[in-house]
């Protein structure tokens, strides 16, 4: 950030009074511009014994497989955002279940949320953000071609919990950037 | 937002190609400025049988009682943010426990997270954002003077779970603004 979004004048990086971090401060109008982590909201959609994955048509991780997910928008809940992303990326009809994984990803300045969901129809209508969408049995998950560690760890929890039939919420951190 | 934070020129509100929402778009440099919900991270700190509350020295809800909580910062996890806020607002030494409540508050464009924690010393050093901080037995919680519904509902869950000795994560929405 180089200019004030309120008045258009150049900003200064300094620690405001009663604060302890560098902020983008406007000396002209007095505005302090805060930056905060963003939430990514998504779904683990299950059709019979298979899991819905989408192949990304956008960066980052173009061509890799992901669970439907994207940035949470103003005015929606995490659940509403997760349903919207499933619609946008897969065109899947789902019945949303409970919140399942909550994952802190501090190096990406994000928190990820994945809901369990039941897919109601095998018909998919992937949107422009997906090359394709399809159903994978657990044996066929393309582990080496998954886009994000929040996706692979959510799938790992699901497979482990399926053995017990109990799907509690899981909260954990992914504290380091991925290996190159 | 009225000006581009990248180049300082006035912005236009329009729906970009391949999008479906009004965004702050800069026709000069092409930047699209997204806005996203923010996370509030806090703690339910327990000393023996008592709960630590802080009386707010800042708006909104000046003079009302709250659990230590504040906006999550870039580069930290929800847990790190919750510990930081407890230090800043109460100066309490704590041992952080598990994530306890996750609360969607869409009208405020926020998601709130509260962790359980054990207070390690009765000594408190409230910071400038608190008028005072103190310990309350369940019978003495000032229900009518609590600052936020995310605080009162987190306390209600805690009191109910204390009866069973099990403290699972709770996820719920507060879908409507508070009554005036
Ligand atoms: Zn300004
Ligand atoms: Zn610009």
Q: If you had to describe this structure to a student in words, what would you say it looks like?
A:
- The structure is a homodimer of 180-residue chains.
- The first copy, chain A, is α+β, with helices and mostly antiparallel strands and 180 residues long.
- The first copy, chain A, folds into two domains: 1-35, Ubiquitin Ligase Nedd4, Chain: W (Single Sheet); 38-173, Alpha-Beta Complex (Nucleoside Triphosphate Pyrophosphohydrolase).
- Chain A is built from two helices and eleven strands, in the order E-E-E-E-E-E-E-H-E-E-E-H-E.
- Chain A has helices at residues 78-90, 149-164; strands spanning 12-14, 23-25, 32-33, 38-47, 50-56, 65-66, 69-71, 94-105, 110-119, 130-136, 170-173.
- In chain A, strands 4, 5, 6, 7, 8, 9, 10 and 11 form an eight-stranded mixed sheet that branches. Chain A has a three-stranded antiparallel sheet with strand order 1-2-3, with no helix packed on it.
- In chain A, strand 1 (12-14) and strand 2 (23-25) form a beta hairpin.
- The longest helix of chain A has 16 residues, at 149-164.
- Chain A is elongated and about 60 Å long.
- Residues 4, 6-7, 9, 26, 28-29, 31 of chain A line the site of one zinc ion.
- Chains A, B: Keywords: Hydrolase, Magnesium.
- Chains A, B: Its cofactor is Mg(2+).
| Gross geometry of chain A | elongated
Task: Let me know the largest β-sheet of chain A.
Answer: 8 strands, mixed
Spell out the helices and strands of chain A N to C. EEEEEEEHEEEHE
Which protein chains make the most extensive interface, counting residues with beta carbons within 8 Å of the other chain's beta carbons?
A-B, 45 and 45 residues
Pfam families (chains A, B): NUDIX, Zn_ribbon_Nudix
Family (chains A, B): Belongs to the Nudix hydrolase family.
Organism (chains A, B): Pollutimonas thiosulfatoxidans
Protein name (chains A, B): NUDIX hydrolase
């Amino acid at each position: 950030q180089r200019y004030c979004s309120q008045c258009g004048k150049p900003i200064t990086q300094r620690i405001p009074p009663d604060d302890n971090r560098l902020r983008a401060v406007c000396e002209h109008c007095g505005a302090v511009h805060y930056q905060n982590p963003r939430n990514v909201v998504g779904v683990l959609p299950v059709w019979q014994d298979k899991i819905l994955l989408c192949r990304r048509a956008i960066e980052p991780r173009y061509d890799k497989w992901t669970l439907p997910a994207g940035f949470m928008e103003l005015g929606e809940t995490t659940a509403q955002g997760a349903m919207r992303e499933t619609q946008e990326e897969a065109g899947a009809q789902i019945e949303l279940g409970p919140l399942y994984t909550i994952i802190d990803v501090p190096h990406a300045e994000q928190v990820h949320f994945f809901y369990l969901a039941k897919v109601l129809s095998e018909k998919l209508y992937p949107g422009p953000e997906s090359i394709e969408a399809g159903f994978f049995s657990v044996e066929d998950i393309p582990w080496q071609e998954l886009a994000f560690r929040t996706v692979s760890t959510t799938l790992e929890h699901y497979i482990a919990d399926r053995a017990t039939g109990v799907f509690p919420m899981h909260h954990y951190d992914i504290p380091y950037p991925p290996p190159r």
